[in-house]
Amino acid sequence: MDPALSRQIVLAEDNPADVGLVREALREYHVDCDLHVIPDGQEVLAFIDRLEADSKLPCPDLLLLDLSLPKHDGRHILRYLRSSERCGRTPVVVLTGSDGVDDRAAAEKNAALHYFRKTASLDQFLRLGGIVKAVIGGVRQVES
Fold first, then answer.
1. Mind listing the pLDDT tens digit for each residue in 29-82?
2. 3 vs 107, which has greater pLDDT?
3. N or C: which end of the chain has fewer CB within 10 A?
4. CB 42 within 8 A of CB 15
5. What is the CATH number of the domain that holds 120?
6. Domain range holding 13?
7. In what order do the strands lie in the sheet with 92-96?
């Protein structure tokens, strides 16, 4: 793929093991992308602010958002992103260990395309690569 056409994915995740699993899931499904990892909520908000302030910077093709980030949680970040004039329509896949009703409701209310529950099963976690491939390919993923 032409590097100029490579998909830009931001992964907001503070757990190095989960970052490794996401990278493996993307490899497993042959997702060609530049993955930019941001480990805490404050840095994610600053990243969104930079995008908002500089129209020359492209909005990411996808945000993979852990709900449990230090400094600012994923629910706050998702609301903040949705309020962005430039990048408010960026597709979001929520990553979480929670299956809480409130977390799912917050993700749905703020137009997350998919709610992916992190699992201890490697095979199940690798399915994230297929979800990402569908989202950046323009196919809306149904909830599992």
1. 999 999 999 999 999 999 999 999 999 999 999 999 999 999 999 999 999 999
2. 107
3. N
4. no
5. 3.40.50.2300
6. 3-136
7. 33-38, 7-12, 62-66, 92-96, 114-117
User: Residue 119 carries which side chain, given as an amino acid letter?
Assistant: T
Report the domain count for the chain: 1
Please give the single-letter amino acid code of residue 84.
S
54 in the Ramachandran plot: left (φ > 0), alpha (ψ -120 to 50) or beta? Answer: beta
Reported pTM: 0.89
Tokens standing for residue 22: 């996401």
